[in-house]
Amino acid sequence: MSSGPEKLIDGKAVAETIFSEVAAGVSDFSRSRRPPFLAVVIAGEDPASQAYVKSKVTAAARCGIGSTLIELPATVEAAYLRDRLDRLNADPGIDGILVQMPLPPHIDQQKIIESISPDKDVDGLHPYNLGRLASDKPRFIPCTPLGILELLARYGARTEGRRVVVVGRSILVGKPVALLLSRKHGSGNATVTICHSSTRDLGLVTREADILIVAIGKAHAIGGDMIGGGAVVIDVGMNRVPDASAKKGYRLTGDVDFESAYPMVSLITPVPGGVGPMTVAMLMRNTLQAARWAHGVRDDG
Question: Which of 95, 100, 119, 235 is catalytic?
């Protein structure tokens, strides 16, 4: 496969292409209908979450998708949040609903996810949508796993018959991406192994991977000595590590030690600029799809 600078998977560039594709789809959809509309809900004032939701609202505007940002205090009661979601569910002018995670610790995140209508669950995390994915009949697919598949496809990383190792088992990334890559489909048909914090001899397993997807939430958990030569590495991690030379006093790094991994790989996502932009791009695509389904428009447009 690739060597030199061509080893980098440019998630920003791919996301830009998808934003353009979604904008074209929105333009076509909106010729005789109102534009798709996304409601984004955030509770609390976590700076990272605040920045992330604003990037989603900005992306929606770029794509021609209407949006509203509902900002609630960290002290919001769970009952009030569920009531707001009930009203959004019932509003025919809202096509997609996203609740930014994490929520304040006194709120049960799973119950909030289950309070979103499956028909408006553009994050793909409602048990109904996860169940459809597990049944090989996906409707809304979680945005980060969907973005990973797009990156693999657009960089020509074949999955059929390949050995895929996923490090991490969350419902946000690990489990759904494993389901996607193992299903009987052109973008799947891989042999998938899921590893986690209790996996013995982790490096022994990861070195066997043709495609290694790391979403464990620990900076530099995977080093170059844990990667087989020529592997495709998708680093989903986003960790803040102290850096006195940085303006903010920290820098962002992934779950993979990029410097030691780079000589071993054929392709690798940088952090930042790899998977992150794709998550937002897939949210826009899912929102357009939600509007199409709500208006009875066929999947082919």
Answer: 100
Domain coverage including residue 43: 32-117
- Selected catalytic residue, list 123, 210, 255, 257: 123
Residues 86 and 149 in one domain: no
Tokens read off for 226: 């844990």
- 289 catalytic per annotation: no
Do 77 and 171 lie in one domain? The reply is: no
Of 56, 95, 255, 289, the active-site residue reads: 56
* Residue 12 domain flag: no
Task: Give residue 259's pLDDT band: very low, low, confident or very high (50, 70, 90).
Answer: very high
Residue 125 inside a domain? The answer is: no
- Asked if residue 272 and residue 156 are part of one domain, the reply reads yes
Please report, for residues 86, 178, 262, the alpha-carbon distance to residue 94 in angstroms, rounded to integers and kept in the order given: 12, 31, 44
Query: Which of 281, 292, 289, 288 has its CA nearest to residue 59?
Result: 281
- Which residues have C-beta within 8 Å of that of residue 215, sequence separation ≥ 6? 144, 166, 167, 168, 170, 172, 173, 174, 177, 236, 237, 255
Domains identified in the chain, total number: 2
Residues 109 and 234 reside in one and the same domain:
no
For residue 123, indicate whether it is catalytic: yes
pLDDT in tens, 149-160: 999 999 999 999
Per residue in 228-243, pLDDT (tens digit) is 999 999 999 998 888 8
